[in-house]
Amino acid sequence: MPVIKHQEYIKAPIEVCFDLARNVDIHTVTTSHTKERALGGVTSGLMENGDSVTWEAVHLGVKQRLTAKIIEMDRPYQFVDVMVEGAFHSFRHTHTFEVKDKGTVMTDHFDYKSPFGVIGKLADRLFLERYMTDFLVRRAKALKEIAENNYNNR
């Protein structure tokens, strides 16, 4: 099972970063390159523990749907979402937030298993792990930009 870990330092308070990361409307902004939109469950605003959302997006040229559910939340330090239904065999995405140097270190820890056994493992090595890393990094940098622009321009 591949595990992707990415850290992003954000010059904004931990509460701001935490709330932006669980905001469905902000998620669609930070993933606009995949045309992501919420179709079911919580479709706007902040997600809470136990909430789920069904996303539709275009990944690798294919329109896909994925339902994720928040199964743990300790505001403003961590929340965990898991795939309930979708293209992966499974995934667990842990989002952690730590106060550091008058800002926040946001860490994505994405642990996933591809479908299709050996073929899925080959896809991981050839392109999927790199694609998912790029997706998470791009989203983190977009969250950083939103947090810093909104907080530091007050």
From TrEMBL:
Gene3D superfamilies: 3.30.530.20. The keyword Cell division applies. InterPro entries: COQ10_START (IPR005031), START-like_dom_sf (IPR023393). The keyword Zinc does not apply. GO terms for biological process: cell division. It comes from the Bacteria. Residues 10-118 form the Coenzyme Q-binding protein COQ10 START domain. Pfam families: Polyketide_cyc. Keywords: Cell cycle, Cell division. This is Cell division protein.
